[in-house]
Design a protein that fits this description.
Number of strands of chain B: 5
Largest sheet of chain C: 7 strands, mixed
Number of domains of chain B: 2
Oligomer: heterotrimer
Shape of chain B: extended
Radius of gyration of chain B: 22 Å
Strand order of the largest sheet of chain C: 10-22-21-20-11-18-19
Order of helices and strands of chain B: HHEEHHEHHEEH
Radius of gyration of chain C: 34 Å
Chains: A mainly alpha, B mainly alpha, C alpha+beta
Helix content of chain B: 40-55%
Shape of chain C: elongated
C-alpha cells in the first residue's frame, strides 16, 4: 500500500466525478429543456429514424403509456436476441463455426443483456460468433443502457411536473439518447481503444507458433466497439471470458483508467442532471459528497485488504506480498481495487481482477455495493434507487420533524410509500431466497468453486449480482446449467422491472401532485445533515437485511482466517 | 398493437445501426489507422508470427523469461483464472506447486524474496507482464543457461521496463514477450558478432 | 404530576390488563401485522415446548425449558403492546363514561302540529321536531333555538362553568343536547336524529371507536409491514444457510431472532400514539372530527384568522376626542357622551367612561324623554333626538358626513385629514354630530390581545404564515397587522375574500387553516384543510368545520398545530428508535447463532455476553421490556419545539436514533448480568 497509489485511486474517482458534471449539463439540455443547441446537427438524422420506426415525436405520454412502450420494446428486443443466439450457427460472421446456444443459456444471456446485468454463464471467446457479439451483445449494451437512462429522465420530469400527466415521449427520448450520447461517444472512444491496443477485426482466430515452439490460438474480434459501450453503458459483459482482465479488452493502466471513467461518468453526471432539473444544485452536491465518500471508502477497504496480502500464505509458506491471485500485473492491487469498487458502485459488472480470489473483506465490498445498488448506481437505475431511498428517508425524517413528508415539494403519502416499499423488498427477496434455495440443493452446492463459507459468498454474490443487474461474479461458480440459468434469468428480470414499474407508478402519482412551496417548517433535503441521514437509512436498512448472510459469508471467513492463524482451528 | 409493431421496427433499425453499421464503421477506421493494434498486436520473429505482444505464452525453454502461472495453460482462446478463494485449500496446493516449480527452476532463491506474481495465477491466465522482481530473479537462471552476463540481462530489463504513470496508476513491470525478443536479438547479435 | 397519576391509576391499570388479555384474540390482533407475527411465533414456540422435535431434528428435552422461556417472553411482548393500546383507549373511555351519564333518560316536551305539547323520551326526537325547554331543564337533543333567549350551562361538554347566552336568530342559536337551560324558555328545532348528536359523536370519538387510520399512519403501517416481510425473508433464509454450514439453527431461536428484528416497539405503540394524540386534542377542549384533521393541522402552511375577537380583544375602546374645524373640545365631549348615553355596547360605554375623565357625566334620568336611536347595520349610526328636535349622532364618518350634507351642514376641512390620521394609527374613527354640525371624532382603538405577538412569532418559526382578515380599511388593517405581528392581512374582507384566499393558497399546494363561527364562514370552513369552528357558532359553521373548539378560542389553532406535529414526531421517533435497536440485537444474537459452526464470529460479541442462550434471551427480554418503558412517551408525545426542520431532525435523531442504537447495548448487557445472577453462568 503506497501513498502514491492511494492518490492514484482518489484521482481516478475525482476525474470520473469531474467529467460527470459537464455530461450532466449536456443531458439536462437534451432532456430537461424544450430545445437544445445540438438540434440543428442531430435532428435530420433523428427525423429519418422517426420515419423508419413510425414515431410521431409530438405525442405526449403519461406514465402508463411511457412504461408500456418501454416494456414492450424491451420484450421484443429480448426475443430478437434470444433468436440470434439460438440461430447463431446459421448466421454470418462466424469464422470459428460456433453452434447455436442451448435454450436456457440463450434465455439467460438475452435476459442478462436486456436487463443491463451482463451476467455471463458462457465464455465469450468460446461460445459466441462475431455476429452474436455485435448484433446480440453490443446492440443490447446500447439499448439496455438507454432504457435505464430514459426511465430516470421520465422520473425526473415527473418530479418537477406541477399537476401534469405527461412525462415525455418514450420513443423520442430513447432515440435521442442513442444519437446524441451513446453512439458519438462510442465511436470516438472505440477508436481510442484501438489505438491503445484493443483489437477490432473481423478476421478469425490467429494461430501462431510461440517462441517455445508451441501452437497458440489467439481469439480476437470486434472487441473495441463492444468494450466502449460495455463500460459507457454500465453493462460489464465482456467479449472475453476474463472480461477486462483480458489483455485484449484492457491492455494497459491507461485503458483501465479510461474504462473506469467511462463507466462512472454518466451515472455520476445524472446526479448533476437531477440537481439541475429540480433547480437545486446543492442537492446534487450533497449527494456527490456522500456517495463519493462511500465509494472512496469502499475502494480503500479493498485496496488495504488486497495489498496486505493473504496471511495464510505467509503462515504456510513464508511468502510475503500483496494478494496477486486473480490479478494482472499491469493493474496491480490499487487499480484492481478501485476497479472492483467502481464496477459494483456503478453497477457495471466488468472486472479487471477476479473478485472470487479477493481477500474476504476485499470481496465483501463489491458485494455490499451491489446490495446498496445506489452508490451512484447503474445508468438511470442507480438514480432511481437513490430516489427510492430518498423517499423512504424523507418519510421517516418528515415524521421526525412533524410534517407530512415532502420530497422536492411533493407530498409523500401512503401510495408512494407502498410503491417504494415494494421496490425496497425486491432485493432481499431476489438475493436471499434463491441463495438459500441453491445452497439447500445438492446440484446447487455442486456448482460452487470454493468450499465452506467462501462457497456461500460465491452463491450470495451470484444472486446479488443478478438482482442488482450488475453482472460481475465470484467466477468460481459453475453457472451454466438449466436450473441456474433459468432462476438467474428470472431474478434479473424481476430485479430490473419490478422496481422500475414501482418507480414509474410513483412518478405517475408525483407528476399529478402540486409542488408545495418551501417554508421554514419544510425539511430541507439539500443539507449535509439530511445527506447523513440518507446514508444512515440505506446503510442500516441494507445492513439489517444482509448482515446475517454476510456474517456467515465474508465476515465469518475473515474472522475464521485470523483465528486459524492464531492457532485456533 | 401499434406499440408492438413500432417496437419491432425499432429493434430491426437499431440492431442494424448499433449491431452492424457501428462495429463495421469502427473496424474500418481501426483497420485503416491502427492495423497493428486492430489485428491483435501480433509480432513476428524471423518473419513468422510468434504471438501477440499482449498475450502471455507458455515458456518451456529455461533460457527465456517465463510468464506468470496460468490457470488455463496459456490458452489464448479460453481465458480464465483459478478463482480460488483466499482460504481455499486448493489455493494453497496451487501456490505450493507454483512455488516448488519456481524454486526448482531458480534454485537458491529465498522464499521471502519471491514476489507474489511469480507464484499466484493471473486473472486472465494470459497476463503478458511480470514484476521487475520476478524478472530479476529469473536472470540468474537465464545467465547460467545462455551465458549472457547477468548485468547485461538486468540492463535489458531496465531498457524494456514499463514505467507507471507518475507512480500513481499501477507499478513498474516488464512485458515478457518484449523482453524475450530483446533477449533473442541480443543473443543473435552475440552469435553473429 | 397530577396527569401521570391519572394516567396510571390503579383502576385504569386493572381494566387495561383485562383488555390487553382480550386483545390476544388473533382476530383482533391481525389488524396489527407486526404483533400478529409475534403471536404466530409464540404459537410455534409453544408447540415446540410441547414437542421440541415437532419440525424434525433430535433436540433433547432440555430444549423444552428454553422454548418455554422464549414462548413466555413472546406472550409478554404481545401483552405489553396490547396493554399500551388499552391504556390509551381506557383514558378515552373514562371520559366517554362521564359524557354518557349526562345523556341518560332525558324527557322532552314536543310540540305537535296543532300546538299541543306531549312528553316524549329524548330518543324519540327526530330531525325537524319542535320542542320547548324551560328554565332548569336539560336540553334533550341538538338543535337550533327559534324563539326566546336564555342562559345555558354547557359545562358538561366544555367544562366551562360560566353560563353562555343562547337565543333565536344570529350566531348564537345552536344548542347542544346534554346542556342545561338556566333561565327563560327556548323553543328549539331539533337538527339531528338520535345517535348522530354532537354528544354521540363526541363519545364515539373519545372512545376511539370511530378511529380510522390517518394517511401518515397508513403509510407508516405499510413501511413497517414491508420491514417485517424483509426480516421474515432474512430469518427464513438463514435456516437453509445454516444447514449449508452443517450447523442448523433451532426454530425457537430463529423465531426469537425474528421477533427481535421486526419493529415490535413501534408496532406495539402505533395505535396507542394515535389514540393518545386525539386524546390530547380533546383535553384541549377541541373536538376533532377525524384524526386526519389533526394530522393536517401539523402540516399547515397558512393560517387565516379574523381580527376581531381573535387577534384583538373583541371591542374597540374610545381613547381620544379630536375636534374638527373651530369646534371646542368641551362641546365635542358633551355630544359624544350624550350620543352614547343609552348605548350599551362596549364602544358606547367606553365613550361615556372617557367622557368622565373630562368631567362630563350627564345622568340618564335627565334624558328619559329623549328618543334613543339604536345602531343598525343600515344607518351605521346611533344617538339621541332630544324633545326639542336636537339631533345628536355618532357614527361612521362617511355616514355622518352625508347626514350633515343632507341637512345643509358643512363638512369641516380638516375632517378627512384627521380621519385618515386615526385610520393610519390603526384606530376606528367615529364622527360626532349635533344637528347639521360635525364637532369632531372619537378615536376608537383596537387593542391587540396580550401575548399575540409572541404566538405569531412562534408560528413563523414553525414555518406557518398568518393572514389577518378584517372588515377595516387597509390603513387600519396594516397598523393592526404590524402591531400584532401577522405576516399578511386582507382589509375590507368579505366572506368571499376568505374563500378566494383559501383557494389561491391551496392552488399553490399549501394547506390552510382557519377559524370561524358565523354561517357565512361555513363554505370557507369547509374549503379549508383545517376548519376550526367555534362552539358558540352556528350549527352550519360547526357542521362545515372539521374541528370544534368548545372554548370558542380561535387561537387554539396554534395548539392544534403543535399537537398535530407532536403526533407525527412521536411516531417517527419511536419508529427510528425501534429500527435502530436492531443493530445491537444483531451483535447479541448473531455470534450466539453460529457459535457452534463459526466460533471465530464470537469477535462480533462485543457486549461479551455470558452465553449464547443468555444473549438470545437477553435480547428478547429487552425487546419486550422496552415497550412498557416507552408507553409514557407514546401517551405524552415527543415534545415539539418550534425550530427549523433540520435542527429538529438532528435533535430527534440524536435522541431517538443514536439513543436507539446505544441503549440496547447497555440494556442487553444489564439483562445478561441479571440473568447470570439468576441462572448462574452456563
Amino acid at each position: 500500500m503506497t501513498i502514491l497509489h492511494g492518490i492514484g485511486i482518489i484521482l481516478i474517482i475525482a476525474i470520473t466525478i469531474a467529467v460527470g458534471i459537464p455530461i450532466g449539463h449536456y443531458l439536462y439540455q437534451l432532456f430537461g429543456q424544450e430545445t437544445s443547441k445540438t438540434d440543428r446537427f442531430f435532428l435530420p438524422m433523428e427525423k429519418l429514424l422517426y420515419r423508419l420506426i413510425g414515431v410521431n415525436p409530438s405525442v405526449k405520454m403519461d406514465w402508463k403509456a411511457y412504461l408500456r412502450a418501454l416494456l414492450i420494446v424491451n420484450l421484443v428486443m429480448m426475443v430478437f436476441v434470444y433468436l440470434v443466439l439460438r440461430l447463431q450457427g446459421f448466421l454470418p460472421l462466424n469464422p470459428s463455426h460456433k453452434p447455436g446456444l442451448s435454450w436456457d443459456l440463450a434465455f439467460n444471456t438475452a435476459t442478462s443483456f436486456i436487463t443491463n446485468t451482463n451476467w455471463q454463464s458462457y465464455s465469450g471467446e468460446q461460445t459466441l460468433s462475431y455476429f452474436s457479439q455485435m448484433v446480440g451483445i453490443t446492440f443490447l449494451q446500447f439499448t439496455s443502457a438507454a432504457t435505464g437512462f430514459v426511465a430516470a429522465i421520465a422520473f425526473l420530469r415527473a418530479l418537477v411536473a406541477h399537476k401534469k400527466e405527461w412525462i415525455g415521449n418514450f420513443w423520442v427520448d430513447i432515440i435521442k439518447i442513442h444519437t446524441r450520447v451513446l453512439l458519438p461517444v462510442s465511436v470516438v472512444f472505440a477508436v481510442v481503444f484501438i489505438a491503445l491496443g484493443v483489437p477490432q477485426t473481423l478476421q478469425g482466430t490467429a494461430v501462431v507458433h510461440t517462441l517455445s515452439g508451441h501452437l497458440q490460438a489467439i481469439s480476437r474480434g470486434p472487441i473495441a466497439s463492444l468494450e466502449v459501450i460495455k463500460q459507457f453503458g454500465t453493462n460489464g459483459g465482456g467479449y472475453m471470458n476474463a472480461n477486462s482482465a483480458h489483455p485484449f479488452e484492457d491492455p494497459s493502466a491507461w485503458t483501465t483508467v479510461l474504462e473506469m471513467v467511462l463507466m462512472g461518468s454518466v451515472s455520476a453526471g445524472l446526479v448533476w442532471t437531477f440537481g439541475l432539473m429540480i433547480k437545486n444544485r446543492k442537492q446534487a452536491i450533497v449527494l456527490y459528497v456522500f456517495l463519493t465518500a462511500i465509494l472512496l471508502l469502499g475502494a480503500f477497504v479493498i485496496y488495504a485488504s488486497e495489498s496486505a496480502g493473504n496471511p495464510l500464505l505467509t503462515h504456510l509458506f513464508g511468502l510475503q506480498g500483496p494478494n496477486m491471485e486473480g490479478k494482472e500485473v499491469r493493474f496491480g492491487t490499487s487499480l484492481s481495487s478501485v476497479f472492483a469498487a467502481m464496477t459494483t458502485a456503478f453497477t457495471t459488472g466488468a472486472v479487471n481482477a477476479m473478485h472470487d480470489s479477493f481477500m474476504p473483506l476485499g470481496g465483501m465490498v463489491p458485494l455490499v455495493f451491489m446490495m446498496f445498488n445506489l452508490v451512484f448506481g447503474g445508468k438511470g437505475v442507480g438514480l432511481l434507487n437513490i430516489l427510492m431511498f430518498l423517499i423512504i428517508t424523507v418519510f421517516l425524517s418528515g415524521l421526525m420533524v412533524g410534517r407530512t413528508p415532502e420530497v422536492f415539494g411533493k407530498k409523500i403519502e401512503a401510495k408512494e410509500i407502498k410503491l417504494a416499499t415494494m421496490a425496497m423488498l425486491v432485493h432481499p427477496f431476489l438475493i436471499l431466497i434463491p441463495t438459500a434455495l441453491f445452497l439447500s440443493t445438492k446440484s446447487g452446492i455442486a456448482m460452487l468453486g470454493n468450499p465452506g463459507l467462501h462457497g456461500l459468498s460465491e452463491m450470495l454474490y451470484a444472486f446479488t449480482s443478478g438482482a442488482a443487474n450488475n453482472g460481475s461474479a465470484f467466477a468460481g461458480l459453475s453457472a451454466n446449467n438449466v436450473f441456474f440459468n433459468v432462476t438467474q434469468g428470472i431474478v434479473m428480470i424481476l430485479g430490473r422491472y419490478v422496481s422500475l414499474i414501482a418507480m414509474f407508478a410513483i412518478a405517475g402519482s408525483l407528476a399529478k401532485k402540486a409542488v408545495t412551496p418551501n417554508s421554514v417548517g419544510t425539511l430541507k433535503t439539500d443539507t449535509f445533515a439530511f445527506g447523513g441521514v440518507f446514508v444512515a437509512v440505506f446503510v442500516i436498512v441494507g445492513a439489517l437485511t444482509f448482515f446475517p448472510a454476510l456474517a456467515i459469508g465474508p465476515i465469518g471467513e475473515h474472522f475464521s482466517m485470523w483465528s486459524a492463524l492464531n492457532g485456533h482451528p | 398493437m401499434v406499440t408492438v409493431l413500432r417496437s419491432v421496427r425499432f429493434t430491426l433499425v437499431f440492431a442494424l445501426v448499433l449491431g452492424i453499421l457501428y462495429p463495421l464503421f469502427v473496424t474500418l477506421i481501426g483497420q485503416t489507422i491502427f492495423p497493428y493494434q486492430a489485428n491483435g498486436s501480433l509480432v513476428t520473429w524471423q518473419g513468422k508470427p510468434i504471438g501477440s505482444m499482449l498475450i502471455a505464452q507458455a515458456n518451456t525453454s529455461p533460457g527465456l523469461f517465463s510468464p506468470r502461472p496460468s490457470a488455463v495453460d496459456y490458452a489464448a482462446n479460453n481465458s480464465g483464472a483459478t478463482n480460488f478463494g483466499p482460504t481455499n485449500p486448493a489455493l494453497f496446493k496451487e501456490v505450493k506447486a507454483n512455488l516448488l516449480a519456481v524454486q526448482k527452476a531458480n534454485p537458491g532463491i529465498p522464499v521471502a524474496a519471491i514476489p507474489m506474481d511469480m507464484v499466484e495465477s493471473s486473472a486472465s491466465g494470459l497476463d503478458p507482464d511480470i514484476s521487475i522482481a520476478n524478472a530479476t530473479i529469473q536472470t540468474v537462471r537465464i545467465a547460467r543457461v545462455t551465458h549472457i552476463k547477468r548485468s547485461d540481462l538486468l540492463r535489458l530489463i531496465a531498457q524494456q521496463e514499463h514505467h507507471s504513470f507518475l507512480g500513481l496508476w499501477g507499478s513498474d513491470y516488464v512485458n515478457v514477450l518484449r523482453l524475450n525478443l530483446a533477449l533473442l536479438k541480443k543473443e543473435a547479435m552475440r552469435h553473429h558478432g | 404530576m397530577a396527569k401521570s397519576t391519572m394516567m396510571f391509576s390503579r383502576k385504569l391499570g386493572v381494566t387495561s390488563t383485562v383488555e390487553a388479555l382480550k386483545k390476544m384474540d388473533p382476530r383482533m390482533l391481525i389488524r396489527n401485522p407486526v404483533m400478529f407475527v409475534v403471536e404466530i411465533g409464540a404459537v410455534n414456540t409453544l408447540l415446540l415446548t410441547i414437542d421440541p422435535n415437532l419440525f424434525g431434528g433430535h433436540d433433547s428435552t432440555s430444549q423444552r425449558m428454553y422454548n418455554l422461556t422464549v414462548t413466555i417472553i413472546l406472550v409478554i411482548t404481545i401483552l405489553f403492546g396490547n396493554f399500551a393500546e388499552a391504556v390509551a383507549e381506557g383514558r378515552g373511555k373514562a371520559q366517554a363514561e362521564s359524557l354518557r351519564k349526562t345523556k341518560t333518560d332525558l324527557l322532552a316536551h314536543r310540540l305537535q302540529k296543532d300546538g299541543i305539547q306531549e312528553q316524549v323520551p329524548a330518543t324519540a326526537l327526530r330531525k325537524g321536531d319542535l320542542i320547548l325547554v324551560r328554565a332548569g331543564e336539560m336540553i334533550p337533543a341538538d338543535g337550533e333555538a327559534i324563539e326566546g333567549i336564555g342562559s345555558v350551562d354547557e359545562s358538561a361538554i366544555t367544562g366551562e362553568s360560566a353560563p353562555v347566552i343562547r337565543g333565536a336568530g344570529g350566531d348564537f342559536s345552536s344548542v347542544t343536547g346534554g346542556t342545561k337551560l338556566l333561565s327563560d324558555e327556548l323553543l328549539i328545532r331539533i337538527t339531528v336524529d338520535p345517535g348522530e348528536s354532537f354528544l354521540d359523536k363526541m363519545i364515539a370519538l373519545v372512545e376511539g371507536a370511530s378511529r380510522q387510520k390517518t394517511p401518515n399512519e397508513l403509510a407508516l403501517s405499510v413501511l413497517l409491514a414491508g420491514l417485517t416481510i424483509i426480516f421474515l425473508v432474512v430469518v427464513a433464509t438463514l435456516l437453509p444457510m445454516s444447514y449449508y454450514i452443517h450447523y442448523p439453527i433451532d426454530i425457537a431461536t430463529l423465531i426469537a431472532l425474528l421477533v427481535c428484528l421486526i419493529p415490535t416497539t413501534i408496532g406495539a405503540l402505533l395505535s396507542a400514539i394515535g389514540i393518545a394524540g386525539m386524546d390530547r386534542v380533546i383535553r384541549f377542549n377541541v373536538i376533532a372530527k377525524s384524526g386526519k384533521a389533526v394530522e393536517a393541522a401539523g402540516d399547515i402552511n397558512t393560517l387565516i384568522l379574523d381580527k376581531t375577537g381573535t387577534i384583538t380583544i373583541g371591542n374597540r375602546l374610545a381613547s381620544e376626542f379630536m375636534t374638527v374645524g373651530d369646534k371646542r373640545q368641551q362641546d365635542l365631549v358633551q355630544f359624544a357622551v350624550l350620543s352614547s348615553l343609552f348605548d350599551e355596547t362596549p364602544e358606547g360605554r367606553s365613550v361615556v367612561e372617557l367622557g368622565k375623565t373630562y368631567g362630563i357625566a350627564p345622568l340618564r334620568e335627565q334624558f328619559v324623554d329623549a328618543m334613543t336611536i339604536e345602531f343598525s347595520a343600515d344607518t351605521r349610526m346611533s344617538g339621541l333626538t332630544l324633545p326639542d328636535g336636537t339631533t345628536i349622532r355618532k357614527g361612521a364618518v362617511d355616514v355622518i358626513k352625508k347626514f350633515a350634507l343632507d341637512h345643509h351642514g358643512l363638512v369641516p376641512e380638516d375632517l378627512d385629514e384627521k380621519t385618515a390620521q386615526i385610520a393610519k394609527a390603526g384606530g376606528t374613527p367615529l364622527a360626532v354630530l349635533c344637528n347639521q354640525d360635525i364637532y369632531g371624532l372619537i378615536y376608537l382603538k383596537d387593542i391587540v390581545k396580550p401575548g399575540m405577538k409572541e404566538r405569531f412569532a412562534e408560528l413563523r418559526r414553525m414555518g406557518i404564515k398568518t393572514v389577518m382578515c378584517t372588515g377595516d380599511n387597509p390603513l387600519t388593517a396594516e397598523t393592526i397587522a404590524k402591531e400584532a405581528g401577522v405576516d399578511d392581512f386582507i382589509a375590507q374582507a368579505k366572506p368571499e375574500d376568505k374563500m378566494r384566499l383559501i383557494q389561491s393558497e391551496q392552488e399553490l399546494g399549501k394547506l390552510v387553516a382557519m377559524s370561524g363561527d358565523g354561517t357565512n364562514d361555513a363554505p370557507a370552513l369547509a374549503q379549508a384543510d383545517v376548519g376550526l369552528a367555534m362552539n358558540t357558532g352556528t350549527s352550519a359553521a360547526k357542521e362545515a368545520g372539521n374541528m370544534i373548539d368548545l372554548d370558542s378560542d380561535p387561537t387554539k389553532l396554534i395548539e392544534v398545530v403543535s399537537i398535530g406535529k407532536q403526533l407525527l414526531i412521536t411516531r417517527g421517533a419511536i419508529t427510528t428508535f425501534s429500527i435502530a435497536n436492531d443493530v445491537a440485537k444483531y451483535f447479541a444474537i448473531l455470534p450466539a447463532l453460529f457459535v457452534g459452526s463459526i466460533p471465530a464470529l464470537n469477535a462480533l460479541n462485543i457486549m461479551r455476553l455470558s452465553s449464547p442462550t443468555h444473549a438470545i434471551i437477553a435480547a428478547l427480554i429487552f425487546n419486550a421490556v422496552i415497550i412498557p418503558c416507552l408507553i409514557p412517551l407514546a401517551m405524552r408525545g415527543v415534545k415539539y419545539r418550534p425550530m427549523n426542520a433540520t435542527q429538529l431532525l438532528m435533535r430527534n435523531l440524536l435522541i431517538y436514533g443514536l439513543g436507539g442504537i446505544v441503549s440496547p447495548f447497555i440494556g442487553i448487557k444489564l439483562i445478561d448480568l441479571l440473568l447470570q445472577v439468576i441462572w448462574g453462568v452456563h
